[in-house]
UniProtKB/TrEMBL annotation:
<dbReference type="InterPro" id="IPR032675">
    <property type="entry name" value="LRR_dom_sf"/>
</dbReference>
<protein>
    <submittedName>
        <fullName>Tyrosinase central domain-containing protein</fullName>
    </submittedName>
</protein>
Length: 286
């Protein structure tokens, strides 16, 4: 009697669901059968960090050179460019042109430049970005917040400092889909002095201030936060220890970065936390 078999569509759904839920199982799944290998291999690259460890990056650049089909690159949904010393910018751009299904892109400040804009415009699902706009556009005067590359952005981690970006900062309201904005420590100083107001962005669901936990002593950091008299239920102040590690953790579904801050705002809306409290789930010791 022949063993029962599942329809291929259902079999594929089961294997892909297992790979996404348990990424550590992917190496074992790849050995099940040839057709399973074809289905699952792209999921190895759902989250890609171009960093000093060149293993995955080299495999992807080789996939570009060997002409892998477009669908192979469509599996990449989260991409961070953390180091560029090991590769040519042309190689990174060639890869990114094929990654049209990226949802979440993070770039160290030295990477973006205007040549990246048409590539970003080709990404059909780009919603989250962490980068320097001044570098991306080539200077404050060149920033165009109506550019097609930015129209679907819902989450923006703005790497530029206030002194460099104040001329166009108010224009961030031009981004039609923006609901989550993250700013650095120097912006917190400006908000704390009342020079900018969260009330200027009624569509924002979250305004997150973040800076590295090693930038000042814990006591001074806590005091600076406490003395900033900026009250809004949508406001959260957070710290990070290793930005790129925490970026990856959230990409994999962990409670970090945006997710952690959203949870904090939700708890304020429910009345579980005082609405005027802005200090979120931090790594601090008052």
């Amino acid at each position: 009697m022949a063993e029962p078999t599942l329809p291929l569509e259902l079999e594929r759904e089961i294997f892909e669901h297992t790979a996404l839920m348990f990424p550590q199982s992917i190496p074992s799944l790849l050995r099940v059968a040839r057709h399973v290998y074809i289905w699952i291999e792209p999921l190895l690259y759902r989250i890609v960090r171009l960093e000093d460890d060149i293993g995955i990056a080299s495999a992807l650049f080789n996939a570009v050179k060997t002409g892998r089909p477009p669908e192979f690159f469509h599996a990449i949904h989260h991409l961070s460019v953390e180091a560029t010393n090991a590769w040519l910018f042309e190689d990174i751009h060639s890869l990114m042109k094929r990654c049209i299904e990226i949802r979440n892109l993070a770039c160290l400040s030295s990477f973006p430049n205007p040549s990246l804009l048409p590539i970003l415009a080709g990404m059909r699902s780009l919603q989250r970005m962490s980068c320097s706009f001044l570098d991306l556009f080539g200077g404050a005067q060149a920033v165009d917040l109506t550019h097609p590359a930015l129209q679907s952005l819902t989450h923006l981690d703005f790497f530029d400092v206030y002194s460099e970006s104040r001329d166009f900062f108010d224009a961030l309201s031009l981004l039609p889909a923006l609901t989550h904005l993250c700013l650095g420590q120097d912006y917190w100083n400006v908000f704390a002095r009342g020079q900018l107001s969260i009330a200027d962005w009624p569509r924002l669901e979250l305004l997150l201030f973040q800076w590295c936990s090693s930038m000042m002593s814990r006591r001074k950091r806590y005091q600076a936060m406490k003395e900033g008299h900026v009250y809004d239920i949508r406001l959260v102040i957070g710290l990070y220890t290793d930005y790129w590690e925490e970026w990856e953790l959230e990409a994999r579904g962990g409670l970090k970065f945006w997710a952690e801050a959203d949870d904090f705002v939700l708890r304020k809306r429910r009345g579980e936390i005082e609405g005027t409290v802005s200090i979120g789930q931090l790594h601090y010791d008052p």
